[in-house]
From TrEMBL:
One Pfam family it belongs to: Ncstrn_small
Native organism: Ancylostoma duodenale
Gene Ontology cellular-component annotations: plasma membrane
Protein name according to UniProt: Nicastrin
Key words, A-Z: Glycoprotein, Membrane, Notch signaling pathway, Signal, Transmembrane, Transmembrane helix
């Protein structure tokens, strides 16, 4: 986590959060192309924003009204139970997201929510469907988030799962101190709280 100033890096304050195995997104190579999670050093850094249920305006306008002096990208902090069909479409359509930081829901997950990472017809190329993924063979209709499944999306960003309370609290504190308008102001100015991934993935 970084306090992102407009000047040189020598003025920044860094807190390093270790990335454990299995919590960062990875890329898959299926013999013809790569897909999954990918990030480059150029897109690794972004100001931290927190998205709560029902708050999607920032995804559409890149939070420019709050960060008027900043034209870079963002790391979006959100709860896993917010990942639904419409939010995923907004994320994929955005050109200002550097990465996602996913945390566990604070309350019980609604059992009626679509949460399956698989598609409407899991394993569509396995040969078990006589008519491909036709209406008569869709058996994961109520569970899928996207028809083709979350797993096979080319996100073009890194996604990190955070579960350590100390790390989560540090990110929230940094965000609340520097990225939330104070005293009735509609926007914030430098310095900002920002994050930078040190993990870059590619398939082999």
């Amino acid at each position: 986590i970084t306090l992102c100033h407009g000047e040189g890096l020598s003025d920044d304050i860094y807190i390093t959060i270790p990335v454990a195995e299995g919590v960062a997104g990875y890329r898959i190579f299926n013999g013809t192309h790569q897909f999954g999670f990918h990030s480059s050093k150029a897109d690794a850094r972004g100001v931290v924003v927190m998205v709560k249920k029902g708050e999607r305006a920032g995804l559409l306008d890149c939070w420019r009204s709050r960060f008027r002096d900043y034209l870079g990208k963002y790391h979006v902090f959100l709860s896993a139970d917010m990942i639904d069909r419409s939010l995923v479409q907004d994320i994929l359509a955005s050109n200002c997201i550097a990465g996602l930081m996913i945390v566990d829901p604070e309350s019980s997950v609604d059992p009626t929510e679509a949460l399956s990472h698989d598609g409407a017809c899991p394993n569509p190329k396995s040969g078990i469907y006589e008519e491909a993924c036709a209406t008569t063979s869709v058996w994961n209709e109520k569970g899928y988030v996207l028809p083709d499944g979350l797993r096979n999306i080319d996100w073009n960003m890194q996604i990190l799962y955070l579960f350590n309370k100390t790390h989560i609290d540090a990110i929230k504190k940094c965000h609340d101190l520097f990225n939330v308008p104070k005293d009735g102001a509609p926007f914030v100015s430098f310095p900002f709280c920002a994050a930078s991934f040190g993990v870059f993935s590619t398939a082999a």
